[in-house]
Structures are given as C-alpha cells and as structure tokens.
Amino acid sequence: MNWDVVLPLLVLSTPLTTAIAIFLVGEEHYWLRTWLNIGGAFISLVLILAMAAGVYLGVIYEARLELLPGLDLVLWADPFTMLFAILSAVLWLLTTMYAVGYLEMEGSLHRSRFFGFFSLCVAATKGVAMSGNLFTFFIFYELLTLSTYPLVVHRGNDESLRAGGSYLRYTLTGSAAVLLGIIWLNSIVGASYDFDETGILETLGEEYQWTLRVIFFLLVGGFGVKAALIPTHSWLPLAMAAPAPVSALLHAVAVVKAGAFGIVRVVYDVYGVAFASALSVTQVLAVLAAATIIYGSLRALSQDDLKRRLAYSTVSQVSYIVLGAAIAGPIATIGGIVHLVHQGLMKITLFFCAGILEKVLHIKKVSQMDGAGQRMPWTMAAFTIGALGMMGIPPMAGFISKWYLGRGALEVGQSWVIAVLVASTLLNAAYFLPTVYRAWFRPPPPDEHPEDLSESKRDIFIFFLSPALVTAILVLASGLLANAPYSPLDWAYRLAEQEYR
Amino acid sequence: MIIGDFMPWAVGPAQSIMLPLVAAMIAFLLGRRALPWLPLLIGVVMILILAALTQQVWEQGPQRYALAGWGAPLGIDLYVDGLSLLMLWMTTVVGGLISLYALGYFQHEPRKAELFWPLWLLLWTGLNALFLSADIFNLYVSLELLTLSAIPLVTLAGGAAALGAAMRYLLFALLGSLAYLLGVALLYGGFGTLDIALLGETMTAGLLAWMAMALITIGLFIKTALFPLHIWLPPAHASAPAPVSALLSALVVKGSFYLLLRLWFWVFPVAITPTASQLLGALGAAAIFYGALHALFQPRLKMLVAYSTVAQLGYFLLLFPMAGMLAWGGTVYFILSHAFAKAALFLAAGNILHTLKHDQIKNLSDLDRGLPLTLFAFGLAGISIMGLPPSGGFLAKWMLLQAALDSGQWWWVTVILIGGLLAAAYIFQVLRHAFDHSGTPPLANAEANMPLSMELIPLILALISVGLGFTAMPYLRLLDIGSPFLPEEIAP
Question: CB distance B417–A184 less than 8 Å?
C-alpha cells in the first residue's frame, strides 16, 4: 500500500465515514453514537498527527483524480495544511465532547442529524486543508457551506431559520464570485494549476495585469464573505442563533477559518506574495483587513448579548490573519498564520464558556454576568484566559500573534499597522475587561440562586467543562512554549521560510 | 468479457425497441398478473442489451444497422453513437428506478397500475426508438408514440386538474407535431431524402433550409416545453402521479430535446447563423430566469419542481451560442444529471404528497422528523440542481462556464451564475420550511408506513446525481464517439 496516496484519503474518509455511520445509527442509540463520534474524532487525530510527522520529515503526500480534462481533484499536504488540519482535528475531538454535554443539557432533538452533519462539516474542513488546487478547494468549501446549514438552523425556531437564510444568501453569493474567479483564471492560464506551482501568473505578461487584479478581488471577496470581512460580515452575528458548539466550531475552525485559509492560499500559493504585492492588490487587502479589525471591535463594544459580542470579536480577530497575509513580509506572515491557530484556540474557549454559562446559569447577556466567577470559578477562569489572550496580554497566545504582526509591519515599513494594532488592543480590552470584571469582582445578584445541578446532569457536566479547560491550557501553552519545537509558531516559521526562500 | 459471444441475440439496437413494445402488450393483456416480474425482467434484459451495444460502439465506433436488411433510403436505418448510448442508459437507469418506485406507489391502486404499466412501457419504446432512429420521419413516429403515451399517463391522477392539464398538453403537442411534420415535408421536398446523414451532406444554406429549421425548431420547442412555449408543462407535470411526473420531467422532455440536438448539429450545421444561435441562447437565459422566479413563488411543492424543470431546460439552450466541445460535453452532462436529480425531486415530492396529503410549501414544518430520508434525498438532488459541488450538475455548469469564458461570451457567465443562485433560493426555501419546528403537533416518523422502494428510490437517484460529480471522464470518452465536435476545436 502506498501511504503517500492512502493517508490523505484516510484523513478525509474518517470523518466522512463517521458521518454516514451516525446517520445510519438513528436517534435512540445514545451511547453508540457518542462512541462513534469520539472514536472517529480520535482516529482522525492520530492519522493527522502521523501525517504531520511525515510532512515534518519531508514526505510528499498526494492523491489525485482527474474529474474533467486537465482538471484534477488533488489532496496533498504542506505545512500550512497540517497547521489547519491539526487544529481542526484537536478541536473536533474537544467540540464533540462538549456538544454531547451541551445537547444533553438542552434536551435537544435530532442529535443524530446534528452529529452527522457535524462530522460532515469536519470532513469538509479536512478537505479544505488538504486541497491542492483552487478547484479542489472550491469543492470542499461548498461542501462546508452545505453541511453547516442544518447545524445553523438546528433549533428550527424563527430566529435560527432567519440566520440560516442570511448565511446562505451571503455565502452562496460569495461562492459564485469565487467560482467565476477560478474558472476565469483557468481560462487565462489554459489549465488548472496546483498550489505548489506558484509563479505561472507572473509569466502571463503586462496585458493581463488588470484581469488578474479583478480575479484577485473576485476570489478574495468571495472568500472574504466567510472570513467575515466588511462589508460582508453581517451573517456571522446572526448565526449566533445556533447552539453554542456550532458557534464554537464555526468561529474557531470551520467556516470563518476556511474563508481566511482561502485568502491566505490565494495570496501565497496562487498569486505568490511578491507578485500580489507587485500588482498592489495586497495593499488594498491590508486596508480592508485593518478596517474590519477596527469596525468589528467597535461593534463588539455595544453588544450586551454575550455571544453576539464574541461574534463581533471574531469579525475583528479573523482579519488579523488576513492582515498578516496582506502585509507581505516574512515576519508578518508568521504572525498571521500563527494567529489562525491561536484565534481558534482562544475563541473556542470563549464560546465553550459562553455555552456553559447559558446552559447552567442561564446567563446570555454581559449585564447578567455579575458574580459568575464565584458561582463557576473553573469556567470563568478558562473564560478569563481566553479573554486575556484575545487582548494580547503576555504570555497568552494572542500576544505572540500581535507581536509578530507588529514587527512584521515595521520590517516592511508599514508603521500604520502598529496604530491599528494598538487601537484594536485597547478596544479588545474595552469589551473584554468588563465581562471579566463583572464575573470576578461584582457580587452575584441576590435574588437569584445558583442553579442546583441535578445529580444526572452533574455527570454530564464534566464532559461539558473539560474541553474548555483543555483549550484554555492550550492557549497558555502555545504562548508560553511558543519557541518550543512543533509549536504552532514553529510550523509558521517553516511556512514563512518556504514562502520567502 | 464479450457479451455478444454468448448472447448474440442481445447485440443490435432493434431489440431495445422491440423488448418494451412486446412487454407493453403483455402488460396490457395480463394486467396485474404481470406484476412485479415483468418490469423487473425488462429492466434486467435491457441492461444486458445496452451493455452489449455499448461494448460494440466503444470498440468499433458509431454503428449503423439496416432493419431487416433494407438500408436507407428505402428501408429503415438505426444509428448508435456515444450520444444515443448515453440517452439510452439514462432512460434505462432512471426509468428502471422509477419503475421500482411505481411498484410500491401503485400497490394499493391496481386499477391505475393496470393502465400505468402498458403506457409506461410504450413510452419507453418511444424513447428508445427516438434515440436510435436515423431518419427524420421515423423520428416523427417515435416522437408521436412518446407524446401519445405520455398524455394518458397524466390523466392517471384523475380529477379535473389532471384532465385539464392533459388536455392542454395534448393541444400543444399536436401543434408541435404539426410544425415538425411541416418541416420534415419541406426537407423531403427540397432534398429528396429523410436520412439524417444524407440530409447533412446535401444540406445547403438557403430559404428552404431556414424555413424547415424554423418549423422543426418551433415544433420541438413546444414538445420540450422550452421558453416561451413551455406553458403546458407546469400543470401537466405537477398534476400527474409522482412516478409519471418523474418520467415526464426526467425523460420525456429530453427525448424531444435530443431530437433538436440531432437536427441542429447533424442536419443543419451549414445553415446555422450566429443570430439564430444567439437567439436560442437568449431564450434559454429567459427560461432560466423566468422558471426560477416562478419556482420561487409557487405555493405548491410539485409546481415548484415543475417550474424548476422550465428553468433547467433553459440551460440546455445555452449550448447553441457556445457550440464547441466543452459546451457540448457540459450540456449533455447537464441533461443526464438533470434526469437523475429531477426524478429524485419529483419522487421525493410524491412521498411528501402521499404522506401529508398536501404539498403546500408553507405547511411542510417538521418534515425532517416525519420524512428524514425523503428530505435528505430532496436536499441531495437539490445540490445537483443548484450546481453545487460535488454533483453532476456542478461539473456540467463548470464546463458551460468555462466554454462561455473561453469564447469571451461573459453574458452567459452571468446568466449561469445568477441562475444557480436562484435555484439555491427555491431549493432552500423548501428546506427552510421543512426544518421549521414551530408547527404543532410534531410529525411522527411516517416512513415506516411506506413501501421500502418509495423510501429508497428517491435517495438512490439523488445519490447518483451527486455521484455523477466524479464520473465525467469516462462519460466524455463515450460522448466523443461520433461527436460533431472534434477535440481540436478547443485549442485557444
């Protein structure tokens, strides 16, 4: 058996098989489904780690299938793939555990459907990570759109149905733009080309410059819808109508990240950062990203609903990744790429905690958070770590990202970015510190009694809380141990080296 | 393995016409005693015949057969190439699966079953004859057989709506036949032959050719329900029983469209003007918008699916202005994917109508609990209709888009992309209501009370329409056999 071909297929088919098995198992087999879920996620993690080791040692993985003449479905793995794939594998395992607890607390119906599409969504994410060309990327990107729709409308109430509608309107329109961009590019180049063949566009010549600029913005604009770049971000806060594990997954690994991942791929592996910079498209992108960072933070300030505040924070934070790519310097590249992982860890911690607060203390608004720290110290400790990380306080993970972004901007003489970073940090503090302050330093409201967890739910609660604690520890660890080998930062370094050889 | 070696009687296209014809008579004579073995037997034998035929064409190229040794111009010729094989396979697989569904669907209505089977087998005969005929008069005969067996099938539903729809269908179809036949007469008068290949060779551009082309095109526009001559289709397709709706939308309209392709690209190539091609493309674009917008505002599910057919037929017309290898491959793939996806949609809608006794889209709440497999099939088939990956519809649209960009006709790009978004809007409108849980009382799972075939067949059809997203390469090789578009034509 040729592992170079089989391993990518296995990585993709594990969550796919899990999804099909879960659909077939049916609603009533609670434990069988739970074990399928966790087993699938665990096997997937092991496979991904094996593949990561291979990539680290320089093995080239590639599986290829010709779908149309000159148009291949390509699965491959480079360090960037692995960064995203490991993130999604780890967070899938944790989110699955969390979701089991969450849906049990909610007494939700349709759990079989939920976990089925959940696994399908993870399969799509794996596919996005391993795509070897834009055509393949598009296929998995759309699979992601389709498989998340049932998750967003899971509750089936008016609010979530409206959120689902808005989600589709935005993302499908974005996809149409991406599709046009990809086919146009193919039409110019004469064939589809893989991500590792960067440089073909540079040889096209002067007369294609404007066309290439238009295509760049079709692609980036289309991906930007999922990455919630302004002005196409407004589906994201609405999508908060979904259950907390879905929001967590959407914000940390799946949808939003797929958009950001796509933008990074376009800048580095389709256009090549030097060529994109020469076309002066990255400058425009940098301004757009900076505007999104500030705008998202400003909007987050005024949200009283906790999940909506987190959603606007995502709008702002994901644009750091885009900004890192758009600054077009090696150190900024590291900052942007490492933030893909760091933001995922921090944001998923915050969403896990928000979900716990919602289900156990029935806290949905920031103004209700008084004394939450006394009532649920572990949850709020994790929340605090996530929030401090978002602000970029050392030694949390967020600090590393901001540090590299700032240094990278200075390196290429774009000092205005520093102003954006400072403003954003202040705004982050302004919307996160009140939550932390209320939770720890205000007394709990006297008229409310701490929720008495019934005995049966107390067992579940461990399931529910531990993922948040694990991700909080990861936030701390990836900051503290940033310089250790195999840390996210280490991977980002390797990537940047490869890009700026 | 060479099928012809141990089954020499199976090789040859005439068998695929005679088989359903004989079966139709048996079904008529035996009534319910012919069930369920007869349809199953026909399906299996048909697959064997087609496999043998495919092997022969694959190895030896397009085949021409003279029936009973009488060749053209006096006798009847049958002709098989990649295109006709693909159409025959589509008919057999989609038709066979719909037959299985129909076995369950008509289980408790033996009276209707007794009428359904002979008519459907006749319809099958008409389709196979149409895909194999090599001359335009035989094509006329098979087209009539097709129409005259399709119309009574619509009336099977009973009731005033179905009868009215069938009547309207009949009037339009007769008008279409008349126009087509006039065109045939003109061609025969002008060129002295009815044979497609001979006509193609002797064809010269001129008033006669244009008149004939216009008449035949109008006739076939009516039969295929292409915009603006589509108005008979939505009521007829929506009021028929579920298996009939599926047959009509998936196969019958493809029959007359196939004829349009044969005549435009085999008989009339020298007479085609760019204006005519662009006009057909424009009508296609109008159909896409008109059909999709109407689908969006239909209160009834089956009407929505029927209008979706009007819109999807519009895509076929985009081939004419972009004619070339890519668009050719894309359009025929579109026809195939649409057959599977639309059959799945109509059968799923049939399950919904069967369970709820209504198909008002606004009242579909809780359907994900009541009919999960049916809804899943609807969603999967919807992926292909919307043209999202992975599905046959996606690859077909990809080829069309690439053809439009390669030939610099960006306006068709806009049409295709907006058409896809509109399709997403009407498909997701159904899913949105199905996911609505505010309805009371909650629906219990109703699939347990349904025959297994009704539960599974829509899903199988939908899975095939998605699976077609991975099988375009062998398909294109088959289509190239006898294709009017040669590989050189895509060179930039």
Answer: no
The confidence band for B492, taking pLDDT boundaries of 50, 70 and 90, is very low
Q: CB within 8 A of B284, min separation 6: which ones?
A: B226, B227, B314, B315, B316, B317, B318, B320, B415
- Helical H runs in B320-386? 325-356, 367-370, 372-386
Please check whether residue A344 is in contact with residue A338, taking contact to mean a CB–CB distance below 8 angstroms: no
Chain A neighbors of B437, CB-CB under 8 A: 109, 155-157
- For residue B481 the two structure tokens come to 């056999």
Q: Does B274 touch chain A (CB under 8 A)?
A: no
pLDDT in tens, A339-380: 888 888 888 888 888 888 888 877 788 778 777 777 788 888
Q: Using CA atoms, how far apart are residues A327 and B376, in angstroms rounded to an integer?
A: 44
Tell me whether A207 touches chain B (CB under 8 Å).
Answer: no
Half-sphere exposure of B113 (CA within 13 A, CB side): 21
Cis-peptide into A231, omega within 30 deg: yes
Instruction: Identify residue B18 by its one-letter amino acid code.
Output: M
**Complex-level ipTM:** 0.88
Residue B421 sits at the chain A interface (C-beta within 8 Å): yes
Q: To 5 degrees, how large is the angle CA B267–CA B195–CA B137?
A: 100
8 A C-beta contact, residue A335 and residue A408: yes
Closest Cα of chain A to B320: distance in Å?
20
Interface residue B476 vs chain A (CB under 8 A): yes
Nearest to B401 by CA among A142, A173, A222, A183: A183
Token reading at A23: 């659909």
Q: In the block, which residue shows the tokens 């057999």?
A: B92
The answer to whether A190 faces chain B, any CB pair under 8 Å, is yes
Displacement of CA A13 from its chain's centroid (Å)? 21
Distance, CA of B433 to chain centre = 29
**Looking only at Cα atoms, what is the longest distance across chain A?**
72
**pLDDT tens digits, residue range A188-247?**
887 777 877 777 777 777 778 888 889 999 999 999 888 888 888 888 888 887 888 888
- Pick the residue from chain A with its C-alpha nearest to B418: A176
Q: Which residues of A touch B440 (CB under 8 A)?
A: none
Global pTM exceeds 0.80 = yes
